[in-house]
Amino acid sequence: MSKEHNRTRKPDQKSGTGGAGPHSSQASDAPDGRKPNRLIHESSPYLQQHARNPVDWYPWGEEALERARQENRLIFLSIGYSSCHWCHVMERESFEDGQTARLLNKHFVNIKVDREERPDVDAIYMEALQMMTGQGGWPLSIWLTPDQVPVFAGTYFPPGDMHGRPGFSSVVTRLAQVWEEQPERVRQQAQEMHKALAADIYDHLEPAQIREEHLQRAFQGYARSFDEVDGGFSAAPKFPTAMGIGFLLRYGHQPGESKAHHMALFSLEKMISGGIYDQVGGGFHRYSTDSRWLVPHFEKMLYDNALLLIVLAEAAQMTGHDLYRRTVDETITFLNREMRHPEGAYYSALDADTEGEEGKFYTFTREELENVLEGDLLALACEHYGVQPGGNWEGVSVLHRAVPLADIAQRDNSDPDALQQKLDSARNQLLSYRNRRERPGLDDKIITSWNALLLIALCRCSRLLDRDPEDALRLGAFLAEKALQNGTLYRIIDRNGKAKQPGFLDDYALLADAFSHLFELTGEMKWLSRSESLIRDMLSRFHDEKKSAFHYHPSDGEQLIAQTRDLFDNAQPGGSTAAITALYRVGQLAGAPEWTRMAVAAMEPLAETAATHPNAFGYLLQTMHRFLHPGREIVIVPGTKSDDPTSRRMLAVWRERYDPNSLVITLPAGTDPASSGYPEPYADKTARDNRTTAWICESFRCRAPVRTPDDFRSELGA
Predict the structure, then answer these.
(1) Whole domain around residue 274: which residue ranges?
(2) What contacts 151, CB < 8 A, 6 or more positions away?
(3) Which of 407, 436, 465 corresponds to the end of one domain?
(4) 449 and 480, same structural domain?
(5) Residues 382 and 518 placed together within one structural domain of the fold
(6) Cα separation of 171 and 108, whole Å?
(7) Contact 275, 398 (CB under 8 A)
(8) What's the sign of the alpha-carbon dihedral 417, 421, 422, 427?
(9) Are both 21 and 67 inside the same structural domain?
(10) Domain presence at residue 204
(11) Of these four, 266, 287, 543, 694, which has the most CB atoms within 10 Å of its CB?
(12) CATH number for the domain including 580?
């Protein structure tokens, strides 16, 4: 890709949170003496970046909205996020320009929104943008009536007219003129848009009993889009599709469906080998700009790494291949090194750009490798990572696994393990060298739903791969203390440690799900109790009982011009599918069949759409698979000692087979569930004769308990 092509690529597209590379999370440089605007008082890194623009920005809130009503002004609403490359291009070109700022300040009330803090606001106006233009993306530039109804929208606008496309100043001038001369015409058009935004998709959905045929059609949809050469499920730009891979791992576990496993595992292998994976530091970049996974947009998002960790752990358990286990270990090491808050939570994103250049932190020249490495380490690194003079992208090299280590070992008749040790030494030296560079900007806000996803991932890695659960326990403790305060769940913990913005549907659903995973891992009733409490709050604040559906925005929250459902699984689970999954899973663990029935009722209106458009429902399809192919409830109670080796051996036996839909609960040693507040299904689950005891149950109808690993293995196979 040439530099010119890179500079003229499309604005950050809506593929989930989409988004090409982040810019520095520090406020943009401004001429000395420039007076800050109202955003200087905000804690969002994205809003802080705009705090010294000459534009008279307001944060979203009643002050700005009331001014628009009182002065009868159009609102210019600009929505983006700190890791959005084109948001910052538009800032430099337009919002830092004094003449453009004067136009905006004269004619509009200007509001800047961080979409990660206010996904509810973003969802409404993104839907309006897609209705108006057929496309979505960020920056979202949209003009509203004083009553907040959209009248015109776009994404990135160049500063001046070019290639037949109006420049930002032209758009601003024309809209101001139309509003001044024809306000009633503008309001009439806005009324039609308001009606369209208020329409409910559930009015057009017919509930269908969930059947195996839905899963088959979804699999066929993935198979049609599968890239047989490079893996993945689209042409460029190519996204990781972790939730779809999770569905395919499950679907492929059925007899005769090995192609699903192949598509999932092959895609993971290609990603791990490509530049989308940080070969030196670990962790995944946002997406690939090409079909080969070679050149990524270099930002790193917390949610991508969380979702990929889950399927990597499952692939490692399923295959036993060290490739997946090593990638899990390297990715968690990266997260702990570069994205962890001192108290155990995780920050949101790392930027793509440093010193104004995308990817500069992550790429290398041949000369740099020659200065860092010597002898056989240099030769090995250059061959394995495909480093050539002149590079493979804009004069530099994006490291990728061009020649597999196994091929080099076979050719040279060398020991693969010794070769891996040499490569690890080279990686460590390159990482030390890279760490001396100017670092990418960090978006340091802590988002509840994203951290909940990572908590699920850490719990799964611990259970499936027998990893130390300490990271998961620290994160769970942080969220229980900081995100949940005085009966309210908050979406954001800002850089000052302050909880802000009451949570949305995905925050409630994913945290309820995450705490249920901690209960499964530890058996401590406090985690299940927290899950149950969040589920009850979620139902009371978000559930639409008449339509067996969920609203994204709480019923007692700020009243916007429309409600949204958040149905689709894009880069992250949709709020509705996350709610269905949490309701079903916590219902199973808590022995609450009314919750599992509600989850199924909420799945049924989406079943046909999920089968037809599987790429938009990867997370939901996993829960549909769990419903049609229910696993078992396995309860293990250690003997009197918490480090009892028998319980560990039983878990090792369970790990011998891929079993994604079963729940494996290990209760604390010495627990008496009947007197400790556990739900009824656990009441009789105690260590018999002080010996480790395991129950294998279906819908908590249990077989006779077993006490040895061999008997446990026999019962699992029965």
Answers:
(1) 212-355+443-628
(2) 74, 143, 144, 145, 175, 186, 189, 190, 193
(3) 436
(4) yes
(5) no
(6) 13
(7) yes
(8) positive
(9) yes
(10) no
(11) 694
(12) 1.50.10.10
> What is the share, in percent, of the chain residues with pLDDT greater than 70?
95
Strand partners, 145: none
Q: Can you tell me the distance from the alpha carbon of 236 to that of 551, in angstroms, rounded to the nearest whole number?
A: 33
CA angle 488–489–491, rounded 5-degree value: 135
Residue 1: the pLDDT is 30
The closest of 144, 188, 139, 128 to 168, measured between CA atoms, is 139
Residues 590 and 646 in one domain: no
Cβ(302)–Cβ(456) below 8 Å:
no
pLDDT of residue 356: 80
Q: Once rounded to an integer, what is the mean pLDDT over residues 338-347?
A: 98
pLDDT of residue 3: 30
Q: pLDDT tens across 469-485, in order?
A: 999 999 999 999 999 99
- What is the pLDDT confidence band of residue 140, given thresholds at 50, 70 and 90? very high
Cβ atoms of 627 and 250 closer than 8 Å = no
Q: How far apart are CA 91 and CA 600, in angstroms?
A: 46
Question: What pLDDT digit, counting tens, does each position of 245-255 carry?
Answer: 999 999 998 88
Contact 344, 474 (CB under 8 A): yes
Quote the pTM value: 0.94
- pLDDT tens digits, one per residue of 444-466: 999 999 999 999 999 999 999 99
CATH number at residue 94: 3.40.30.10
Are 62 and 193 part of one and the same domain?
A: yes
- Are 143 and 74 in contact, with CB atoms under 8 Å apart? yes
Residue 666 φ/ψ, nearest 5 degrees: -105, 115
Q: Average pLDDT in the 616-642 region? A: 93
Report yes or no on 206 lying in a domain.
Answer: no
Query: Measured between alpha carbons, how far is residue 716 from residues 140, 150, 627, 649, 676 in Å?
Result: 53, 58, 20, 14, 28
429 and 472 fall within a common domain? no
Return the pLDDT at 642: 60
